[in-house]
Design a protein that fits this description.
With 202 residues, this protein is an alpha+beta fold. Helices cover 23% and strands 34% of the residues. It has a 4-stranded mixed beta sheet with strand order 5-6-1-11, with no helix packed on it.
Length: 202
């Protein structure tokens, strides 16, 4: 069922911005982060406790529920760029938590960049190349939290903050434009392969 699409925006002059990054089990980006460990030297396993992944994806429908009804929220490329800039300007790199709770994640953001395909700024190997997405690198300082990450109990990032809601004239079934394009490509390739098979049989 298609639902209304609401665009989310920020306005730092009205205290509307992303105030923290949460480490969660089910990220709204639907993209798990990559975890990196240092190469073992001299039989010593000295892990870096570092994570890398999407904090936000542009134009990705995110299901939300409210007293007035269900809807899909989206962030534009321009809004995500502004969010990343305000996050840096306000020095919020230490503002991390677990599952959007008051429990600190004992970690900090040390890398932050935006995927910009036109400028050749692409996602690292292992992550989908999503134009306009915000990728962050996080250093985890707590061994217990790191163990939860390694067990797969914590899988990705999710931002939190105060946002303005701006209704659009669009409806969505929850699929992004990229997913729709991938589906169309798969159907096209299937039809082409089927046509070849039919020619061989004929």
């Amino acid at each position: 069922m298609k639902l209304p699409v609401i665009e989310l925006k920020i306005n730092e002059l009205e205290d509307s911005y992303v105030s923290a990054i949460s480490i969660v089990n089910s990220p709204a980006t639907e993209s798990d982060f990559l975890s990196f460990s240092q190469v073992q030297n001299f039989a010593v396993n000295d892990e870096k406790f570092e994570l890398l992944g999407y904090a936000m994806q542009a134009d990705k429908p995110i299901f939300r529920t409210s007293p007035s009804g269900n809807y899909y929220a989206v962030f534009s490329k321009d809004t995500i760029r502004k969010i990343a800039q305000v996050f840096a300007q306000k020095g919020l790199f230490n503002q991390t938590n677990i599952e959007h709770s008051a429990i600190p994640a004992d970690s900090f953001v040390f890398q932050s960049y935006l995927v910009d395909v036109d400028k050749g700024i692409n996602a690292p190997k292992g992550l989908p190349n999503l134009d306009g997405g915000w990728i962050v690198g996080v250093k985890v300082c707590n061994p217990e939290i790191w163990q939860e990450i390694k067990k797969g109990n914590i899988k990705g990032f999710s931002v939190e903050g105060v946002f303005g809601l701006f209704p659009t004239n669009q409806l969505s079934d929850g699929k992004s434009d990229i997913e729709d394009l991938d589906l169309q490509k798969a159907i096209k390739e299937f039809n082409a392969a089927l046509e070849k098979v039919n020619k061989i049989k004929g």
